[in-house]
Amino acid sequence: MRSYPAVVPIAFGLFLAVGVPASAHHAFGAEFDPNRPVLLKGAITKVEWVNPHAWIHVAVEKDDGTKEVWMVEAGTPNTLLRRGFTKDSLLPGTVITVDGYQSKDRSNRANGRDMTFPDGTKLFMGSSGTGAPKDGKDPTEPKKPKQ
Amino acid sequence: MPGPILLALALMAGQDAPSKTWTVPRTPDGHPDLSGTYDTATLTPLERPAQFGDKLFLTAEEAAAIEKEELNLSEDLARPSDPEREAPPVGGDGSPGPYGNVGGYNFFWIDRGTEVFELDGRRRTSIIVDPQNGQLPPLTLEASKRAAVRRALYKENAGENTGEAWWVEIEGPGPYDDPEQRPLGERCLLGFGSTSGPPSLPVLYNNLKRIVQTRDYVVILVEMVHDARIIPLHREHAPKEIQKWMGDSVGHWEGDTLVVDTTNFGKTPALYSASENLHVVERFTRIAEDTILYQFTVEDPTVWTKPWSGEYPWVSTDAPLYEYACHEANYSFGGILRGARLLEAEAAERRK
Amino acid sequence: MVEGQANAYRAPRASDGHPDLNGIWQALNTANYDLETHMARAAMALREGPYGPLPAADVLPLGAVGAVPGGLSVVEGGAIPYRPEALAKKKENQENWLTRDPEIHCYLPGVPRATYLPYPFQIFQSENGILITYEYAGAVRDVYLNDPGPPPVESWMGQSVGRWEGETLVVEVTGLNDRTWFDRSGNFHSAQLRVVERYTRVAPDHLLYEATLEDPEVFTRPWTIRMPLYRRVEPGAQLFDFKCVEFVEELMYGQYRRRPIAR
Fold it and tell me: How many residue contacts between B and C have a Cβ separation below 8 Å?
């Protein structure tokens, strides 16, 4: 297994696949400090399924054995809801590993650059852990809700 | 007749005869029924990548290659990470654009489409059809100057993130002085990237739209930020002094096409670079059971040297819109401003 | 209010064959101040004075503009049936109105408060769907005509599922989060809240609105509010923008400006 950055290229191959720049997306560059990388491992204490970003609270054990809670900034829940996930799909107590960068305001916040289970498998991939999330190959992938 | 209409007609002329089994469904007042829920995500960008020149169409092979590349990327990014991985590098991970040198977040939060779109059986290199090169027309001199100032100021939004308050060294305003200067999407005033528009353009995720149609109104509900574009069908524009974030839209039917005219924008419409002089004409035509052809022409003579037009399909989906309450949990916004103040204080300390 | 004549009026039909609720509607009462009967008083936020409550310092400069008008209860039976511990929480909310009322931060109002905020809303009804759009905070509700099952997450405006019972549109709302209030007087609920609304045309320009609220965590039994809604009949009536996010940025973020404005 290689250590693959969870970075989405803006331009790859032939195609530019994003719209007009600068107003695209909430700017991670405005919020997080590239000089303060973090690696967080711990149990989830709370998941806020909110927009514009879901926030995953993780209790991380410090060197002195005490715990401190970090808020990890994630994406829009709506994408996951349409793939059949719900607020019960990620529960407190679940242990995760997150790498990212700390918020520029120096609070215990970081971007969820790559969020995985301790064994490295990505969250929200269904039980198979591999393969494109929407190719239908995973029989345990939750079904889309109908209107 | 505007360019896109001529183009669409020209393209359709070369088509096979339309299927006899499909006729456009109509509402009781006889107009085409535009209602439904649509996912407007597409891999086709707004502007044509330069290497395609004036080529509007992709071959089937080219389209397949692009889609395969996206699928490979998506599969790649879904693979397990190294369980023993360390924190990412100090100084940033080099990720570009909105990912801001800090890597953004996982790809599974994104939903930018899996296909380049098809119209009249052919795949497209860009949403823009006019100008002919598929690119935005040149900016006016004034607009160019404003754009240059913006580019220089909002570096972090373009990916240049050093984690330092570089702006304390320059004269004039910094990029984080006041909430009002931040992008509308960041403030949760409108969805980012002209997702509501008008014109409505595809963005990184949550590209869903819901249309409900009555005798007197067409309403387009845009997922981000739960914006309802209310389009009256039997009214003139509001007086000039009434300005709206998404402009004032009035619609009327031209045959089987709904034509929507929008003016009365405020100083900062969602469409990047546009001014209060923005004027948008959109056309909605149902071309298949599950497809609406969405066409638009943008005019803003104080910003672009000529009008520009685009089109792409809105394709039906079974998936629902979900609530996108933004302001209610906009924790990042405070973080961004507080972070700027902290970095400025550190820069001031270093100067002593 | 056409009491006793509710059954005499037969509304025109919309294109879906049901009573036509299309239009711009607005409540004309003081329910948003307080669902229960309330006398006029000096301000929402009060402090003790030598002869009774006075406006708190924060709202004093508003003078009479900050005063609260009196009004009758819209609650059937008059009082909201709180559980005792919940009533204590309501009083605490009331005492901390300025920092706790979500309306002050322009947060989405939830259901049923969205209905009787002092701003118009518009119903769009056809055979292809029912939308309710509110001027306040641009809140929107898509009233599903097919039940998609339990909502996957909580939300500010909940998930609305509608059905017709004769001349009445019945809307069941679930999945509401616990962040909204019913009014400015601290009346609140938990995430268990379930709302059943009833919209009935009773006259050409009047809707009868009822909402039954069920929340066993907070109340001892379900309770119902009832009020008329009035059509905005002036020519050119329309919803204005009232997003109102930009109006509260100074309140919420002003202290983080590079050069904060003196308060």
Answer: 118
The nearest alpha carbon in chain B to A20 belongs to B193
In the block, which residue shows the tokens 């003081």? C30
Domain region containing B25: 4-41+137-351
Domain for residue B15, yes or no? yes
pTM of the model: 0.92
Hey, is the C-beta of C234 within 8 angstroms of any chain B C-beta? no
Within 8 A of B189 by CB-CB distance, chain C residues are: 243, 245-246
DSSP string, A21-70: SSSSS--HHHHEEEEEEEEEEEEEEEEE--SS--EEEEEEE-TTS-EEEE
CB contact under 8 A, A87 and C152: yes
The answer to whether position B205 is within a domain reads yes
Q: Cβ distance A103 to B342 under 8 Å? A: no
What gap in Å lies between CA A4 and CA C85, rounded to an integer? 53
Report the domain count for chain B.
1
Min Cα–Cα distance to chain C from A144, Å = 11
- Across the beta sheet with B57-58, the strand order is B57-58, B122-124, B118-119
pLDDT, tens digit, for every residue of C179-190? Answer: 999 999 999 999
The CA distances from residue B132 to B4, B122, B125, B281, B309, in Å, are 11, 17, 12, 19, 10
- What pLDDT score does B19 carry? 53
Contacts of B192 in chain A (CB under 8 A): 23-26
**pLDDT tens figures, B268-282:** 999 999 999 999 999
C107 touches chain A (CB under 8 A): no
Rounded to whole angstroms, how far apart are CA atoms C21 and C145?
A: 15
Of B213, B227, B321, the CB nearest to C142: B321
Rounded distance between C-alpha atoms, residue A28 and residue A111, angstroms: 8
- Chain C residues with CB under 8 Å of A145 CB are 148-149, 152
Distance from CA of C144 to the nearest CA of A (A): 7
Contact B66, B58 (CB under 8 A): yes
Q: Which of B268, B269, B181, B257 is nearest to B229 (CA)?
A: B269
In a domain, B127, yes or no: no
How many whole angstroms separate alpha carbon B309 and alpha carbon B284?
14
Residue B71 lies in a domain: no
d(CA C103, CA B281): 36
Distance separating alpha carbons of residues A102 and B88, to the nearest angstrom: 11
C-alpha–C-alpha distance, residues B159 and B334, integer Å? 20
- Range with the poorest average pLDDT among B95-109, B324-338, C94-108: B95-109
Name the neighbours of C, counting chains with at least 3 Cβ pairs within 8 A.
A, B
Higher pLDDT: A132 or B265? It is: B265
Query: pLDDT by residue (tens digit) across C77-104?
Result: 999 999 999 999 999 999 999 999 999 9
Three-class DSSP category at A104: coil
pLDDT at site B4: 55
Apex C7 CA angle, C6 and C13, nearest 5: 100
Looking at the predicted structure, is the pLDDT value of residue C246 above 80? yes
Under 8 Å between Cβ of C183 and C113:
yes
Q: Buried b / exposed e across C63-88, counting CB within 10 Å, b at 16+?
A: eeebebeebebbbeeeebebeeebee
